Amino acid sequence: MPTQFTLETLFQDPGKEASLLAAIAQDPEEVYWQVMDLLPAGAFTEHREGFEKLAEAVENGKPIPKGFPEAEPAADPVTAAGELAGLYQKRLLAAVAQKFTEELRGDMKPGDLIAALEANLTKIQQAVRELRAGQVQALPELLPGLLQEVKAKREAVKAGAIVGIPTGIKKLDKLLGGLQPGLHILAAEPGEGKTTLAEQIGASASREGFPVLFVSFEETLSKLALKAICAAAGLKAKDFQDGYGDPSELEEAAREYGPGLRNLSFVEGTSRLTVGGIKAKALQVMNRARQARCLIIVDYLQRWAASRQDSRGDFRFVVSALVSELRELSLRLDSPILVISSQNRSGQGKAEMVSLKESGDLEYSADTALFLVKNPKRTATPPGRAIDLTLDKNRYGDKGTVELIFKPDIGVFREVEKYR
Length: 420
Prior knowledge:
By secondary structure, the protein is α/β, with parallel strands linked by helices.
């Protein structure tokens, strides 16, 4: 039965695959390690099984297997590997193009077609980025991209912007340069406003045009939406929760402030949610906002880890694995992840890394650590509270403390005037 033709078929070169295999088999110790980083998993088509056997033999120091198709070894294996990688990327694009063409003939609405196409192209970009992330690169190869990145940051600063995603808290943004790619921990004892501050930062980033994905294991999505709208409008969320608020007032606030929060998205955390699932949802909100990076907020770490733990699992191990996966995701997406953490009993009310539950793993993995702590030396008009936001760890620069006033009735943190 003849093989069905697809667009992907146009971007296969079995002859080049065979010649590269022959070159590796001829000098495995030299050639294989030159080309391995250049070849994605799908680079080979007709000779995929042969490459996998050859790779296994070389990596495990075994004899080179027999039975490869006869071919002239590639004169330049590195160039051949790069060309096969290019064909692989074209096959990915061809698959998207063919699917799009088929859907174009169907009943899908134009807007849905465009959204699906953009989502698939984003997935391809991510696949290519992850391939590059695994490559070994000499320092001179990194310099052109580094210089371009530094120039872009310099232009942003000259224009009055910051390097990372802004938090909306002026002194904190100055200390951090905004939330940069990496893992950022926010901790406090119960009731000090961790979720409120995290959502406020998310809302601020959203208003600046950045997509935000808020993953909640703590609050319902409707309550988070209510808090966001009420904080923007200066309304008391509790009044509406308890049935005393005027619905028309909330309706008016939603009309006025809702559009500015359109990039703030929520997802309910469950035991089935994985870091891979968060990655997919983050790509979705990035695609929707047409932005290359986003802010991911997780509320909160230990609750998520507990949902993933089985009866035999060690909780510290679960937390460690989760933290490692999140930090890797941050670097893959080139986007910051803000994770809320609880504190151990003896450390509550202290701005110290050792106060974090499972602190050893968090101390090592976190790029920054923020603590909300009461300040009894400052006063605030009730029900407001004087709270210090202390930056106890900062891989990006100096440590420091930001003086805030927490207004729990409307769910807002205000920066003390002298820092504004």
